[in-house]
Amino acid sequence: MGRKRVLVVDDEMLVAMMLEDMLTDMDYDVVGPASTLDQAFKLASTEALDGAILDLNLGHGEVSTPVAEKLRERGVPFLLATGYGAGEQTDALGHSGLLAKPFAMSDVETALKSILD
Description:
Pfam family, one: Response_reg
Number of strands: 7
Strand order of the largest sheet: 2-1-3-6-7
GO molecular function, one term: DNA binding
InterPro entries: Bact_response_regulator (IPR050595), CheY-like_superfamily (IPR011006), Sig_transdc_resp-reg_receiver (IPR001789)
GO biological process, one term: phosphorelay signal transduction system
Distance between the termini: 13 Å
Structural class: alpha/beta
Shape: globular
Low-confidence stretches: none
Radius of gyration: 13 Å
Order of helices and strands: EHEHEEEHEHEH
Keywords: DNA-binding, Phosphoprotein
Helix content: 40-55%
């Protein structure tokens, strides 16, 4: 079995690059990263994915809700990365877990293993 493919969605380029580096170091294949809703939705709809890490707020009034709904429809587990904590908005998305910003590599590794294993 090959490496697991994880979609990364974050509008902050430095966070996306950090996640990409972390995931590569953890032996995952990174899909993306996507920084806009359109990019993320296209990848979530068309790519073979084992999991995803979604930033909830993508800036410019965009939220990743449609991406989360598409992943849920496809049966792809995902983590919501947010600096705002849990709430009604996050709970309604049917996520597999929350990743509180700022996060360390160990946080990402633990959270991903819990949804992918």
